[in-house]
Description:
Layout: H1 10-22, E1 28-32, H2 40-57, E2 60-64, H3 68-71, E3 79-83, E4 86-91, H4 93-97, H5 101-104, H6 111-118, H7 139-149, E5 161-172, E6 175-186, E7 190-194, H8 201-208, E8 215-220, E9 223-224, H9 230-234, E10 237-240, H10 253-263, H11 268-281, H12 297-309, E11 315-319, H13 327-344, E12 347-351, H14 355-361, E13 364-369, E14 372-377, H15 379-384, H16 386-391, H17 398-405, H18 410-428
Parallel strand pairs: 1-2, 7-12, 7-13, 10-11, 11-12
Antiparallel strand pairs: 3-4, 5-6, 5-8, 8-9, 13-14
Helix pairs in contact: 7-18, 10-11, 10-12, 12-13, 17-18
Amino acid sequence: MNHRPQDLSDGQKQRVSLAGVLIDESPILLFDEPLANLEPQTCGETIALIKNIHEEKNVTTIIIEHRIEEVLSLGIDKIVVVNEGEIVAIGSPDELLKTEVFRENSLREPLYLSALKAVKVADSLTNFSDLKTLDAPNLKKILTDFTSSYKVTDKAVSKNNILSVKNLTVNFGKHEVLKGINLEIQEGEKISIVGKNGVGKSTFANALCHFVEASGEILYRGQSIVNDSISERAAKIGYIMQNPNLMISQNIVSDEVASGLRLRGFDEGVISEKVEEILQVCGLYPFRNWPISSLSYGQKKRVTIASILILEPEILVLDEPTAAQDLKAYREIMDFLDQLNHRLHLTMIMITHDMYLITEYTDRTLVFADGKIVADESPFEILENENFVKMGNLRQPSLYQLARKADISPISLTKAFINFQNQERLKHE
């Protein structure tokens, strides 16, 4: 009660704002993206809180949300699907989940249901919205055959060390935020950083970019960069903020991409050549003379990435690259980053709360807790380990729950499902 709201965690702030609304005893509660920017465990706590209030106060509850799977546990009576200002579908969860309405309107249906549809058993089901009570005959054999058909070999990891972090420590006043972080990063790796809010994930990213003062050693290709200025560090490690609007300072796309080189005093002829090249790489060349305000969110995200890439860093740090995005925007952003990783061999470090993203798009996951790295494994192994899940306030994707229900390997099913989805997308491109 005596804390300042700005000193609370995101989950606690959510409770404060909810308390402020409840005090008026309104008969209708409207939540706009209540799960955005919350780590998985806090999402579950928020959903449980909303459900409890709904039942105790007997209020009408309306939730605007992309994360369909998470809100199903509320016991939703009705889902309204909206696209381009129009209602395209209304029905109970079971009525809509058996259709393709979510996929057709760029929404991610529950992963377990997508997997059941992939193996052609969804048509025989009646209850779609509760995985616990779902009953499908011969599920173990069907999913075992599926994992065998879409088996994938793990990607080889580069042995070229690009970044070494040794005993990295950050203090804010008397509070030790990072406590002696040690880490080796290889060239071309795609790394995800997970953990509950306030454990030091963003502080670690800021320390890499020299936005905060830190003690310890940072070696880039074997050379110390501890004494590099922010500008010098930016030529090696680029930082992409969650909200692209917070990074944009110019009105026209080409001017925004050129701004970093202009600040560094590059010749205009060199700038023009480099801007054209990077706009081509990022698929932005047709928009080079467009006002940035006319672009979509995903296109703005590309502009901010282009404005960083023009400085030719070999490492990109991305804070919540897909937060609060629908499935279409999620795919566009993550596929674009994947292409950059392959074409330019960029090393990528992503801070995220999306548990499926880490399995689909990253090779290695770091779990942060209490200012330390408490786990460093493949994302599949992190999510299978109950201790890691608990320490990081994580949540296993429903594919893991489906696999356990069928008594097969969660890792094998998840890898096979990702491979299946990639092959299906290639067929339609």
